[in-house]
Amino acid sequence: MRTKILVTGGAGYIGSHAVVELQQAGYQPVIVDNFSNSEESALAGIESILGAKVPTYRIDCADAEALRGVFRAEPDVAGVIHFAAYKAVGESVQKPLAYFQNNVGSLLALLAVMPEFGVESLAFSSSCTVYGIPDALPVTEATPTKPASSPYGRTKQMCEDIVHDVAAAPGNRVHTILLRYFNPIGAHESAKIGELPLGVPNNLVPFITQTAAGLREKLTIFGNDYDTPDGTNIRDYIHVVDLAKAHVTAVRRLLERKASDVVETFNVGTGHGNTVLEVVQTFERVSGQKLNYDIGPRRAGDVPAIYADATKAEQVLGFKTETSLADSLASSWKWQQTLKQM
Ligand code: UFG
């Protein structure tokens, strides 16, 4: 029998790719999603890739009683990957309470309910946002965290703290791996699942592909006066399928009880930084599209430069990214063109 893994937010961007990778690695994913920021169409995409339906529960993860219902219905769940969360930095400034309720509330509910059902393995979606503006690059897991620049960032820091405090409590049996993602981009090679931004995208790559597709007039690059080689921000762009595979590796480590500590933290990035202009130029090259863009003012809250030291994930998890920036952007473009036809 396949080992069951509950995937909260399993219909979302990263979650849907993780569901596919889990199934293909021999696990049985079970999706929990309230579809507040995801689409039913992701389920059809997953089904089409896998040739099988994935059990799905439409509940709010912050609702502990509803979660209990899922664990009762799926008594042999062995572990949880917790993706379900709000993720828009700007929106979190407008609606801080919603972010704390959802992002912190869902983790609290899971941590309370999992032990009731003997489920002791948790992989948690954290973010490189916890590093704030780092003093030195690349950032390692030991790089000190900085005060968050948004309520969204604060929810990720709070969630990490909660995980550590719960782990240290007497009698705790839940082992957690915190995965600090850098910037996920791209889509599944089948172009059957990918990112589905609601409204005007906040993130760079969907904005680029929508501009190239004629849905947006032009991309504005937020500042070219940073202290970087071409003046634009540096980020570590990781292909979403690589990121999904990191979760499979983390789950395996947790289930095999190989973790050296009750909470382990890993950066999940490529280890390389690229400027915004490099991303734009690489996109133009792989898509053959000339992108309409201009340079605008800096965006409030942007970190000038951040990229991962990916050594720990490689040495401890045996995880290494496989997809280049060019191939990642090509997959984003293929996905955008598929969306046009949907
Ligand atoms: N950018 C533009 N124009 C745009 C959109 C983005 O120039 O229209 C630039 C940004 O200034 C930044 C880079 O592209 O330099 C990447 O921006 P994104 O919004 O795609 O990603 P961020 O790095 O700002 O945010 C990501 C995640 C957050 C997370 C954060 C941590 O989306 O969830 O990393 O640094 F909190």
Topology:
Layout: E1 3-8, H1 13-24, E2 27-32, H2 41-50, E3 56-57, H3 64-73, E4 77-82, H4 89-94, H5 96-116, E5 121-127, H6 151-168, E6 175-181, E7 183-185, H7 204-212, E8 219-222, E9 234-235, E10 237-239, H8 240-255, E11 263-268, E12 274-275, H9 276-287, E13 293-296, H10 311-317, H11 325-341
Parallel strand pairs: 1-2, 1-4, 2-3, 4-5, 5-6, 6-11, 7-10, 8-13
Antiparallel strand pairs: 9-12
Helix pairs in contact: 1-2, 1-8, 3-5, 5-6, 7-11, 9-11
The structure holds uridine-5'-diphosphate-4-deoxy-4-fluoro-alpha-D-galactose.
Residues 87, 89, 127-129, 153, 183, 202-204, 207, 219-222, 233, 235, 276, 299, 302-303 line the site of uridine-5'-diphosphate-4-deoxy-4-fluoro-alpha-D-galactose (UFG).
Structural notes for this entry:
It is a single chain. The longest helix is centred in the N-terminal third of the chain and has 21 residues, at 96-116. The protein is an alpha/beta fold. The chain has a domain at 3-188 and 238-270: Rossmann fold (3-Layer(aba) Sandwich). The strands form four sheets. The chain has a seven-stranded parallel sheet, sandwiched between helices. A two-stranded parallel ribbon has the order 7-10. It contains eleven helices and 13 strands. It binds uridine-5'-diphosphate-4-deoxy-4-fluoro-alpha-D-galactose. The site of uridine-5'-diphosphate-4-deoxy-4-fluoro-alpha-D-galactose has 21 residues, from helix 7 and strand 8.
